[in-house]
Structure formats: C-alpha cells, structure tokens
Amino acid sequence: MSTTVSGKSGTWRNWAGNVTARPVREVTPASVEELAAAVRKAADDGLRVKAVGTGHSFTAVAATDGVLIRPQLLTGIRNIDREAGTVTVDAGTPLKRLNVALAREGLSLTNMGDIMEQTVSGATSTGTHGTGRDSASIAAQIKGLELVTADGSVLICSEKENPEVFAAARVGIGALGIVTAITFSVEPIFLLTAREEPMTFDQVTADFDELFTENEHFEFYWFPHTGNCNTKRNNRSAGPEKPVGRLSGWIEDDVLSNGAFQVANVLGRAVPVTIPAIARISSRALSARTYTDIPYKVFTSPRRVRFVEMEYAVPREALVETLRELKSMVDRSPLRVSFPVEVRTAPADDITLSTASGRESAYIAVHMFKGTPYQAYFTAAERIFTAHEGRPHWGKVHTRDAEYFSEVYPRFGEFTALRDRLDPDRRFANDHLRRVLGS
What we know:
This protein is an alpha+beta fold. Helices cover 32% and strands 24% of the residues. It has 14 helices and 21 strands. It has helices at residues 32-44, 95-104, 120-125, 163-169, 201-206, 208-214, 246-270, 275-285, 295-299, 319-332, 375-387, 402-408, 412-422, 431-437, and strands spanning 5-6, 12-13, 20-21, 25-27, 49-51, 67-69, 77-81, 86-90, 107-108, 142-148, 154-158, 178-185, 187-188, 191-200, 217-222, 228-237, 289-293, 307-315, 341-346, 361-369, 391-392. Strands 17-14-16-15-19-20-18-21 form an 8-stranded antiparallel β-sheet, with helices on both faces. A 5-stranded antiparallel β-sheet has the order 7-8-12-10-11. A hairpin with a 6-residue loop joins strand 2 and strand 3 (20-21). Helix 10 (319-332) runs antiparallel to helix 11. The longest helix has 25 residues, at 246-270. The chain is globular. The two termini are 36 Å apart. Mean pLDDT is 93; it is low at 1-9.
C-alpha cells in the first residue's frame, strides 16, 4: 500500500489526505552522510528541513515548505546482537519489513501497534503504541538512537551516551534532529493466543479493572449509537500454533473489517441517518474467535478503510468515567459516528514527551471516515479528554498548544530546553511544532 503521494507539482500528502505540503525540494539520501550533507546544504540555503515517513500521521508534524527528506533508501537491519537482545535498523525501515525480517531470525519486538505501514522512525517519533499491561509503546523498547542534528553532525545516544538526549529523542516529534537508526530491544519469538469476543458496553466498563489486570494485552472497541463492544485479549501461549483459517480470516478481516466496512461508511457518509442502524448491524457482525500465532500476526491487522483520527491518553484510573462521558455525549447529540471507538492501555514510561510519561495510561481513539466532517465530533470529544488532563497522540488530530502541554507534561521544559540546545535556529521547525512546542 503506497501511503504517500508526490504530485507533479511537488505536493506531498499524508495517508488520510487531510495534510498537504509543497516543499522547495525533495531529497532521498542513500546514506547517513548524504542526509547530513542535505541538512547542511539546507542551512546554507536558509531552508528548514523535515523528514517524512509513510505519512501515517494525521497532523502536520512532518509538513515543510523547505527541504523534504524521504528515507526510503535508509532501510534494513544493520546489526543483530543476540547476546544483548538488540537489533539495529535504519530509520526508513517499514515496521512490516522489520517484523517479517525479525521473525525469520526467530526474534520479535515485545509489543507493537495495530498498524505496521509506518517507518520505524515515524512510528517511534510520534509515540505509536499498542496495548499492554506491562509492556509499553514501541519507543519504550528503544535502546539506542542515531540522530543527525541541526549542524549536520551525527549524535549517538543511549542510557549511557548522551542520556538526556536519549530521554527525549525516543519520542522527539521531529524537533530535535533526524533519526537515522534505531536500536530496539528484541526477544526470542513467542506465541500469543488472541481471544476476541463481543461484550456489552456496560459489562466492559464494569469489569474493566479485572479485564486489564488478568490479561497481558487487553483492548476493546465500542460502536457508537449501540451498547455493543468487541473485546480482544492477547496472552502468551505455550502453543500449538493455530492461526486464523484462510477462509474465516478473509471473511472477518478482508470482507467485514475492510470491504463491507468501507461500503457501510460510504453509505453512511452519503446518508448519515442510516449510521445508527449500520452500527447495530456491524457491531454484531464479528463473532467470537480464538487463535494462536506469532506476535505481529496477532497484534497487527490490515487497515484499508481510510479515516481521520484523534486519540488521547488519560490516567488509567480515569478511563471508565471518561468513556461513559463520551458515550452520553454521543447519545445526546445529533452526531452520526460510523467508526468504532478504540480503547487501549500502557504502563508508565520514562520518556520525556511520551503520552504515558510518568503515569499509567489508557488511550481512547475516535475516528471519522475520510471525507466526513469530523470537527464537531472531535471538538466535543476533546473537551471531555482535556477535562481529564488528557495528552493527545503526537501523530493524531488535536488542537492543543505549548501552554496546554506545559501543564500536562511535568518534563515539558526539559524537552524545550534540549531543543534550544540542539536546534537553536529551528532548522527542524514548522508551523505545527511552533504551536505544540512554542517558538
């Protein structure tokens, strides 16, 4: 799936089509040296620089009117250290290629998000995550980073080397430099048993603490305009491997989750009044199933229906109350929402601007089908999320600014001070970063 489009006029668009940019020039470096040279040349020309992955962010975090760096030639595994349990990869490597290559080597990441189209650097820089009781975001599995800074020098950082940069740059939102390589912690490949089953909204919210505590990875989807949810529990398994059957997988994942869902959304966009009825049908379409497979085949799934998304992390203990407020807001409003609301969790981590920095978190993601007006829904949802000190995902739609972030991130000043040191001339700035980090 090609996720970025470079038009004849040099127009760049993100995956969802809600962000466009017109850079002065595009560079596709074949080495870290070429990338560093492109940064130095941009400085000589007085231009700003942004690296862009597959455009899976819904914000303008990677947009630039200066030099656009495409990292697709900087891909592949540099080194596997089985003794240390690490793998070093070039920053432009797509997650799906990393997952397949690791599996061939009998290795796996501990946890991952549910989409694997992104590059490793794009996914980690924006704080992409899956769900986990004990295991955290992809960025929290980073052991080392290589970064090209504003003066074109290459900086290596880890817990031992440049630790203050390491603390921030794992989720650096492109503000500190261009990530050129990442060293991840990996482990011998293992099996996960996934148990998917429908449950009512009232039951999930009443039993949430129990479901969270008893499962290594718990997540659920609530279908607006209904009292129905679909739950998914993933736990490590001794086997045997029992993948989803080819036919049932095609029906559930291709037909229902993508094909029929696309048709339903097109109908809903054309005739919004049909959405509640469609939601009732689609919330019952997916039946219970259990399967056992290697991690990336359980954690990730294809997403071919395009959408726009907002996601906030709230303190885990505030999840149920926040979700109930969201449901009653949708129930009372004239809104028609055709996409399910996704709920996941993460343990606290020690990354400066991670959405789970210093606190156990629960994520609530709201989506709207591409081409459907989303502002009214997202504005109402955001009002609820911010009342609970929510932190928006760095790659998803939100309206927050530096003043808000300085209140919800205790270490916000630490990040901006480091940015002042590494990029005093704001070589890596753009309008979006000016809003979220200040000038």
